[in-house]
DNA sequence: AAGCGAACCAATCTGGTTTTTGTTCACCCC
DNA sequence: GGGGTGAACAAAAACCAGATTGGTTCGCTT
């Protein structure tokens, strides 16, 4: 790297790390000191680059903890996830299909003007992103934004629970699988519909749009699941039942 | 203490500690070894006394942690406490209206025959009860049964959260108030409709019936709330603002 | 004046140690 | 032999000191 250690360079370096590093949104990035060493930039420049990334919502930092990809996990969500324990992807999808449309409707009724502005900003960021992982990032950020703007604590807690489950590791590859079965543009158009309905203060429209969006993803996920089940069956046939079958009962 | 160090003595000693020791239910009692020293009893006796107290629900113990007065704090309880504080009764009702109809629909799809039998039994118990409080008890038991039979963990957790909130003290009088504004028979008829739809494996019917049921209670609760607000206004006018108003801001 | 390096601060994590309840064992008295 | 007794051991949680990490400030250089 003979180029001057400008903030742009550090930024792209970190972005590359995020992208290549299997960004399970809770993924931890190298420390600032390490970034200084690897990029050759002074810490001030590194910090500036990280600050801009944080402002854009791509990463978050916490003193003594580290720098992480994605959005910080709400304590209420992890607590709820602990209470809930493990659950099947289909169950989670059903629950989302139950809760998020209502959240969208409430959001249309109650969100502020600046909430709507932020939603449009999130949608625009998603539009500008190229990488699939980054798109997922903006997607979940938008859903979280809608949930927050609905101003209903119990439902938001339920959403945080689902969001936390979805952030788990085993969901990452599942989403990666389901991504291949859907068109990337479709999701974006649906998002725009949702935000448009919210901005028009149309709760029924927002509910319907969110419902359609989730149903599409639900279908994609189910397709991915059967594909995965097929793989598992193949593996099972290959190994001929040498291990326990606790994870695949009557699937 | 010239009396023999029997379990009774230790028991009364601990009880005195609990009573005099300002037992904020999470209060911590002395360790077993300390109790041995102070009472002169062998550890075995102390443990037996503590075990009986624990069996009676007066205390609870945990390895490595200690012995505490009252009941252990369930995670779902602390979650509910976290959510309950800042959330308005209307919000909780909205959340129920979002989640429980879907639970009823899923229940209609998935519950077993014996689940249905148990629901009918619960409804019959509610029919046979005379006291209003007992009726409420059977009511919540039925709702819990439906939630459990829906076989969807995240939604069931969300329901448990709402149920826990509803069990809080401030909800008790609110329900007592709202009870006067509705007819007791109405709720029973609605319950029968719900169970009938579930028994008929009719998810849409179950969803609609549950929705109607909750809407009726929602209306009763709103009426109770305005009545309560009126009382609060009266009280406020009577006292002319001598105390803090933290509990009634812009109601 | 702006950038840089270093040191320092505060919050967190990490590893080992201690405390506390739970369990087991050999022993003693009736 | 049955039941009680004391001690030691096991397991889980709390506790504490040191290292780690993001956040901040201070001189210094260009």
From TrEMBL, chains A, B:
User: Key word Transcription regulation present in the record?
Assistant: yes
InterPro entries associated with the record: GntR_C, TF_FadR/GntR_C, Tscrpt_reg_HTH_GntR, WH-like_DNA-bd_sf, WH_DNA-bd_sf
Q: Which residues form the HTH gntR-type domain?
A: 4-72
Q: Name one GO molecular function term.
A: DNA binding
The UniProt transmembrane annotation reads: none
Q: Which domain of life is it from?
A: Bacteria
What PROSITE patterns has UniProt attached to this entry?
Answer: HTH_GNTR
Keywords of the record, alphabetical order, are: DNA-binding, Transcription, Transcription regulation
Where does the UniProt annotation place the signal sequence?
A: none
Q: What is this protein called?
A: FadR family transcriptional regulator
Q: What is the lineage of its organism?
A: Bacteria, Pseudomonadati, Pseudomonadota, Alphaproteobacteria, Rhodobacterales
């Amino acid at each position: 790297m003979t180029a001057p250690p400008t903030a742009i360079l550090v930024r792209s370096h970190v972005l590359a790390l995020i992208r290549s590093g299997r960004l399970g949104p809770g993924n931890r990035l190298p420390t600032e000191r390490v970034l200084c060493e690897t990029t050759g930039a002074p810490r001030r420049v590194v910090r500036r680059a990280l600050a801009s990334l944080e402002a854009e919502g791509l990463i978050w930092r916490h003193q003594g903890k580290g720098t992480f990809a994605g959005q910080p996990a709400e304590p209420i969500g992890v607590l709820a996830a602990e209470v809930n324990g493990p659950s099947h992807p289909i169950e989670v999808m059903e629950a989302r299909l139950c809760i998020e449309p209502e959240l969208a409707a409430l959001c249309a009724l109650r969100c502020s003007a600046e909430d709507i502005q932020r939603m449009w900003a999130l949608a625009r960021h998603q539009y500008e992103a190229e990488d699939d992982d980054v798109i997922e990032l903006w997607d979940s950020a938008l859903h979280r934004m809608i949930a927050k703007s609905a101003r209903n604590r119990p439902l938001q807690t339920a959403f945080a629970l689902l969001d936390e489950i979805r952030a788990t590791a085993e969901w990452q590859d599942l989403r990666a699988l389901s991504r291949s079965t859907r068109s990337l543009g479709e999701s974006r158009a649906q998002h725009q519909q949702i935000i448009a309905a919210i901005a028009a203060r149309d709760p029924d429209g927002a509910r319907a749009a969110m419902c359609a969006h989730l149903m599409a993803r639900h279908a994609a996920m189910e397709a991915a699941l059967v594909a995965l089940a097929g793989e598992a069956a193949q593996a099972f046939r290959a190994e001929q039942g040498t291990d326990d079958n606790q994870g695949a009962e009557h699937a």
